[in-house]
Amino acid sequence: MPHQVALTFEDGVTKVIKVDDYETIMDASYKARINIPSDCRDGACGTCKSFCESGEFDPGDFIDDAMTEEELEKGYILTCQAIPETDMAVNIPATSESAKTSAATFTSRITELDRHTDTTTTFTLEIDKRADLAYLPGQYMNLKIPGTDVERSYSFSSGPSTEPASFMVRTAAQGAMSEYLRDRAAVGDEITLTGPFGSFFLREPKRPLLLLAGGTGLAPLLAILERLAENPPEHAVHLIYGVSREEDIVGLDWIEEYKAKLPNFTWDYIASEEGTSAPHTGYVTQIIEPSHLNDGDVDIYLCGPPPMVNAVAKWLETEGIEPANFYFERFAPKEKTGGDPETGAPASAEQVQESGGSITRSEAVSSMQTGRLSFAKEDSFAQLDARMGLELAITELMMPKITDEQLKNLRRLAEATSTCVEGGSVSEPEDFVRLNEEFHEYLFTVSNNPALLESYRRLDLTEQMAATFESGTAIFDRVIQDHFDFVEAFEAKDADRAREVIMAHAKDAKFTMEGAIEKKESL
Q1: Distance between CA atoms of 480 and 487, rounded to whole angstroms?
Q2: Which fold has domain 209-331?
Q3: pLDDT the model gives residue 336
Q4: Nearest CA to 368 among 395, 405, 339, 333?
Q5: Cβ-contact 355, 454 below 8 angstroms
Q6: Burial class (CB in 10 A: 0-12, 13-18, 19+), 518
Q7: Which among 86, 272, 390, 447 has most CB atoms closer than 10 A?
């Protein structure tokens, strides 16, 4: 029976492929016209080494020069050798552009439309070439509003196995999609979809699940419940649905149906406004019980507005609870990418162009932010490998054309990081994380290559460093010298030396991150 494998690229694009029994991930990728970087395809070179975020697999045959047994234990795989034994999520150290793949576009028509309340509308789409649309429960699509060039991002509320695709949308007083759904949407309207997008999707259940929904953030969690119902896990699944007011309470019957489909499923709901029909008043954290958290051995999936995501993360920190995994999707405030926070309108094409790369087109269009709020050593190793790959690419691009002024700025940034390290340890952690980020990001900001800049900015490495580095954190001896050696390689136009420094820096940085994380975990 084929397994679904989600390939997440450095620029945020996630492609889902079907891998047959006894078939490698790479062979299935090529069949799907996705060119994962490779040289040998025999487990001998390591070019296709990637990080397995979840799932089980047969690693196949390989030699130490390509991948060590220690790396395998940490979660790395060679896609040319690995054969899935379950569904998998794999981080590919390349951009979707380099793999010659991208988000796909589909044409659809509205077959069902239900305006439940003034704040919530659901609709179902019949999609042309539905078999070609593979997505994971929790992911979202960009939908083009009929009669306009305007796009908005919405999560599927239906699972991947369902033929028609359903969506659950919050309708506001203003906003292009809100006005369309409220005033003129009708069955038969044609809607164009592009995607799928996002790293918020169900991983293989290995422990109890806690699902937290805020308003129409219920949509992707319904898709996750639908997938779970196809093969019910042995672990408990608990959903908490939080809303603001009475008119926001939609979909209780849909949730209740899963009690019959999932033997270990329970749920509850709460409204922040007093006097509603909800059994509780307040916020979702008030009705999270110790049993739902399983002493931290729990996977949390949370979708809702930014204040809710931030509040739950803060509550967990205050309570001293460290979940095994914490995946989130939040509705991004558009003012952060030059758009209108009231209507949800993204930045215009002109604004994106004028931003000089600080805003990308995908950031401007998307109103979703997806990610993971907890991480382990393996995650930081994958992030360091991804950064190394991007830095090798930006070196090839910038070495021939870097200006004298840019070289001066790069050296100035190298000098700045040196002030935060003393005697093999970090003396000013906040300053070091910020200045180190400015140094590593600089070539991307002056490259005039938005795709590479966006890929770099999607890395979570800076957030991981900020969360683990403290005053006195041990750091590898050559960290500062590496920065200066890198600058000198650019000054000498020595590409081989620059590549040597980048790769050695990434290798040594793993030991620093490993030590910092282990120290943090031991406290």
Answers
A1: 11
A2: Rossmann fold (3.40.50)
A3: 44
A4: 333
A5: no
A6: exposed
A7: 390
How is the chain split among helix, strand and coil, in percent rounded to 5? Answer: 40, 25, 40
Q: Output the CA–CA distances (angstroms, integers) from residue 142 to 42, 164, 187, 327, in the order listed.
A: 38, 17, 19, 20
CA distance 282 to 109: 39
pTM over 0.85: no
Examine residue 196 and say whether the peptide bond preceding it is cis (omega within 30 degrees of 0): yes
Confirm if 281 and 274 have CB atoms less than 8 A apart.
yes
Which residues touch 296 (CB under 8 Å, ≥6 apart)?
321, 322, 323, 324
Query: What spatial distance separates the first Cα and last Cα of the chain, rounded to whole Å?
Result: 45
- Is the Cα torsion angle 298, 302, 308, 313 positive or negative in sign? positive
The secondary structure of 68-126, three-state, reads: CHHHHHHCEEECCCCEECCCEEEECCCCCCCCCCCCEEEEEEEEEEEECCCCEEEEEEE
CATH topology agreement for domains 104-197 and 209-331: no
**CA distance readout (Å), 460 to 46, 182, 348:** 23, 38, 27
For the beta sheet containing 265-271, the strands, ordered from the edge strand earlier in sequence to the opposite edge, are: 265-271, 237-243, 209-214, 299-304, 325-331, 368-372
What class does CATH assign to 104-197? mainly beta
Q: Over the stretch 166-189, which tens digit does the pLDDT of each residue have? A: 999 998 887 888 899 999 999 999
What is the DSSP secondary-structure string of 394-449? HHHHHTTT--HHHHHHHHHHHHHHHTTEETTEESSHHHHHHHHHHHHHHHHHTTT-
Task: Give the three-state DSSP class for 290.
Answer: helix
Domain range 3-91, CATH architecture: Roll (3.10)
The pLDDT confidence band at residue 307, using thresholds 50, 70 and 90, is confident
CATH class of the domain comprising 377-522: mainly alpha
HEC sequence for 228-258: HHHCCCCCCEEEEEEECCHHHCCCHHHHHHH
Q: What pLDDT is attached to residue 441?
A: 92
Render pLDDT for 316-372 as a digit per residue (tens, 0 to 9): 888 888 898 898 888 754 444 444 444 444 555 565 556 554 444 444 445 566 766
**C-alpha separations of 138 from 60, 206, 227, 323, 324 in Å:** 30, 18, 10, 19, 19
Domains in the chain: boundaries: 3-91, 104-197, 209-331, 377-522
Among 95-99, 151-155, 414-418, the minimum mean pLDDT is found in 95-99
